[in-house]
Amino acid sequence: MPGTINYKAQALTRRRVLLTGVGAAAAGGLSALRKPGWAQLLADVAPGGIRFDVLRGDGVVGRHEVDFRLTDHRLQVETRIDVVVSVLAVVVFRYRHLGIETYVGDQLVRFESETDDDGARFRVLGDARPDGFAISTAKGMVMAPSDILVGSYWTPRVIERRLLIDPKRGRVKEQVVAGRERITVPVQATTRAATRYRVSGIITGSVTYDDDGRWIAASLVSKGSEIVYRLRG
Q1: Name one Pfam family in it (predicted).
Q2: Whole-angstrom Cα distance, residue 137 to residue 130?
Q3: SS3 for 74?
Q4: Residue 186: φ, ψ to 5°
Q5: pTM (2 d.p.)
Q6: What is the DSSP string of 6-72?
Q7: What is the distance between the alpha carbons of residues 233 and 188, in angstroms, rounded to a whole number?
């Protein structure tokens, strides 16, 4: 089994936000969303969960859904992705993902996921330990900083992080926020004021949050195609 990579030690020597120039302006845009730890995390929980249609071109090819369960000081976040691309009624690509994040207070204490990426299967298991956050995959174990987050984007706290867990492969990856812009996003019969962040790392594309810190849109490039997330409600 490969040796353990200690990302925690690397993070301690590079404890800074990877945002300069335009990126620093992006960080400033989050100031209105910041709340003390647990309070912010709970504020980002969308009543009824998050429901996206996944679009490729003009057609809906799948769904991305996030559900929340809260008991005492434990929050569980469940992400389900199911995408099927067909050509002339023949399935040419399928992607399925289930990820479960568990928080005690504002701390990630457990993460597990299973992914079927067009036949390639991945499983990730992560647990908080006294010396960091241990992430195990078929390729071995890595040790991440104790305050690591999953790159699942349901909360804008993810935008502020330099290191994130890749929810499919379990790798610890760097994130770069290249810029931000104020926009309005149509949601059903209304529009919402929001901030769109251009990111690279876990995904290459953009993620958008409204002024209440709710995730309401995304776009990314996957296997040469542009994928758009459209909020259902």
Answers
A1: DUF6134
A2: 20
A3: strand
A4: -70, 130
A5: 0.82
A6: EHHHHHHHT-S-S--THHHHHHHTTGGG---HHHHHHHTPPTT-EEEEEEETTEEEEEEEEEEEEET
A7: 6
Between CA 94 and CA 60 the distance in angstroms is 13
* Structural domain count, the chain: 1
Determine how many CB atoms are found less than 10 A away from the CB of residue 192.
Answer: 18
The label of the residue with tokens 């960091």 reads: 132
Residue with tokens 């690397």: 10
- In eight-state DSSP terms, residue 4 is P
d(CA 122, CA 110): 17
Hey, what's the torsion of the CAs at 82, 167, 195, 177, to 10 degrees?
Answer: -140
CA–CA gap between residue 199 and residue 177 (Å, rounded): 5
- Grouping H, G, I as helix, E, B as strand and the rest as coil, residue 156 is helix
DSSP code of 200? E
Q: Tokens in use for 173?
A: 């990856």
Query: What are the tens digits of pLDDT across the range 120-155?
Result: 999 999 999 999 999 999 999 999 999 999 999 999
pLDDT tens for 45-74 read: 888 899 999 999 889 999 999 999 998 789
Under 8 Å between Cβ of 26 and 19:
yes
Report the alpha-carbon angle 123-124-128, nearest 5.
160
